[in-house]
Specification:
- This protein starts with a helix and ends with a strand.
- Helix content is 43%, strand content 22%.
- Helix 1 runs antiparallel to helix 2, helix 2 runs antiparallel to helix 3 and helix 5 packs antiparallel against helix 6.
- The relative contact order is 0.06.
- With 461 residues, it is an alpha+beta fold.
- The longest helix is centred in the first third of the chain and has 20 residues.
- The chain is globular, with a radius of gyration of 30 Å.
Length: 461
Amino acid sequence: FSLGSADLLRRAMGKKIKKEMNRQRHAFVDGAVSKGAPESKAVEIFEQMAKFAGYGFNKSHAAAYALVAYQTAYMKANHPVEFLAASMTFDMDNTDKLNVYRQELRRLSIAISPPDINASGATFTVETATETAGETNAAATSGIRYALAAIKNVGKAAMDSIARQRATDGPFRDLPDFCRRIDVRAINKRQLENLIRAGAFDGLNGNRKQLFEGVDVLLGHASAATSERESKQIGLFGGDDITVSAFALPETTDWPPMERLRQEFDAIGFYFSAHPLDAYANSLRRLEVKRYTEILEAGVSGPVAMAGTIIGNKERTSSKGNRYAFVQFSDTTGQFEVTVFSELLNAARQFLEAGESLFLKANAQFEGETVRFTAQSMEPLDRVAARAAPGMKVIIDSAAPLRPLSEILAGQGRGEGDVRLVARLDDGSEVEINLPGGYAITAPVLLKVGNIPGVVGVGEI
């Protein structure tokens, strides 16, 4: 080989270009034979190079990789909770990786608890539970507590200050206690808002919208408390307590379930407490929808039926002037991207908003272990689920939910879904009534009905 020819071979090896490697094979063998080498030996040498080009290291590099692989495999096999908590802390600023770890925790049946201002550290921590067996008390690991600093835009230093304050003086008893004790210079409005949206204050006040809209009130009291501490003053009546009534938080109902999930997603980076697709579980089974990880595990290219909630959308213009888009979706197993070309993009653009859940038929194309999806069709999942004709079972224990239930069904309109009403009577018996006609039963309808006071349970049938 000349130096130029050798560089062509090097590039084909480095980039694993199979067609080019086949061309180089003939050039290598023919050149070796022309210089007197046996053809069998030339073929053997080239095969060794081709095999090494697949995936090869020098011995010192391979030994280092093997040692690290052994150590991490040992830790994960024998101390999986601690290992994954440490791994998540290491990748705390990478929400994509955190979501992958969360899927692994689910696969290993390891619990992960939500962020909590009274339980979370700045980093991911292992939680233990005390198990009592006779007179023996043993501490057993129960799972991982989500890190405060892993919430977007809150910062580790500020979360460390909250954790230190809690470690010094104990858990925060209520919101006034929290405002009294935090250093207002260590936490700002944006940080407090994201803690609220992520659910970190649910243990003190579960109405996230009320806290979010009242964040200026909280910061005002925190600022006043900080000033009083520094001036060493006491309250007018000799105490330094801030009363709950003094907060005067806005009177408002909490965000609807879907909005609550969207706010949580924006603060954490992925859906944590639930997923918008959870409400469609039975419909997705009827539609034979494949989840993202199921497609990855199958590893087969071809048409697939999928569903996902949009988390991002980037439009581009091709060299020919046609618009196309890369749409990022989330389902209950992970996040994936779908390419949408101009014709479908024009027809579906009205649906391509963050938070919208879509049913799509796509073509999956595997390239090694990665997969590319190209959309063939897409439409709102609500519409498709309604056509799948699910029914709804509503369990009540009083007459109170009947009027709001009637109003919701009337507003939704007729469809093909049955509604079955189960009334629990005082004597413990149940009466089951099938409402006449059919209704368009969608996930939002299920959520609305489930939030009616007095509804004991609701689900698809």
